[in-house]
Amino acid sequence: MLRGANVMRIVWLPGSDLLEGECHCGARHVAEEPAALWEWLLTHPEGHHPVDPPVTATPLPAAPESAPVPV
Ligand SMILES: [Zn+2]
Fold first, then answer.
1. Which of 36, 47, 57, 65 has its C-alpha lying 20 to 30 A from 11's C-alpha?
2. In this structure, are residues 18 and 24 in contact, taking their beta carbons and an 8 Å threshold?
3. What's the domain count of the chain?
């Protein structure tokens, strides 16, 4: 589980077909479609600033070619 000031997460609500998204500002929203939840999370205007897309929604950036390769 990610920890931090700007973490947004989406969790499945057991026993339903619904997902609940929680913004780092504490706002919550329930929807069926993950895409709809992310859109809400990224656009809802209540008391927070727009942030970069959450880490969980995007692949990790490739390591720079100059970085040492882990063995
Ligand atoms: Zn928020």
1. 47
2. no
3. 1
Å from CA of 25 to ligand 1 middle: 4
Domain-embedded: residue 64: no
Q: What is the mean pLDDT of the segment spanning 29-44?
A: 90
Helix and strand element counts for the chain (H, E): 1, 3
Asked whether residue 22 is domain-assigned, the answer is yes
Per the domain annotation, does 67 fall within a domain?
no
Q: What would the mean pLDDT of 45-67 be, rounded to a whole number?
A: 62
- What's the gap in Å between 41 CA and the centre of ligand 1? 6
CA of 7 to the centre of ligand 1 (A): 10
pTM over the 0.70 mark: no
Distance CA 62, CA 53 (A): 17
Mean pLDDT of the 47-53 span = 59
Q: 41: domain range? A: 9-57
Can you give the pLDDT at residue 44?
Answer: 79
